[in-house]
């Protein structure tokens, strides 16, 4: 399966102030494959940023079903 992801912070519909915003979420894959990268768009797909994977990482050769990620991004 291709990598799928969900945003968990900020919650949908939350007003955020201009400045630096931390966006958090989780991603999952299928077939025992590790999530190695998550790209996030905050403008409907016009531009993309690479999120930082957080939390524990699986040992080499052992993939987990999901990974946590976060992204620090400027918001106007």
From TrEMBL:
Keywords: Metal-binding, Molybdenum, Oxidoreductase. It holds the Pfam family Mo-co_dimer. InterPro entries: Ig_E-set (IPR014756), MoCF_OxRdtse_dimer (IPR005066), Mopterin_OxRdtase_euk (IPR008335). GO terms for cellular component: mitochondrion. It comes from the Eukaryota. Its cofactor is Mo-molybdopterin. GO terms for biological process: sulfur compound metabolic process. Residues 1-75 form the Moybdenum cofactor oxidoreductase dimerisation domain. GO terms for molecular function: heme binding; molybdenum ion binding; molybdopterin cofactor binding; sulfite oxidase activity. This is SUOX oxidase. It comes from Pelecanoides urinatrix. The gene is Suox.
């Amino acid at each position: 399966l291709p990598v799928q992801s969900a945003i968990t912070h900020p919650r949908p519909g939350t007003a955020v102030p201009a400045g630096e915003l931390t966006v958090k979420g989780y991603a999952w894959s299928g077939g025992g494959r590790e999530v190695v990268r998550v790209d996030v768009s905050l403008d409907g797909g016009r531009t993309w940023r690479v999120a930082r994977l957080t939390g524990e990482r699986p040992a080499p050769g052992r993939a987990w079903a999901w990974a946590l990620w976060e992204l620090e991004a400027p918001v106007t």
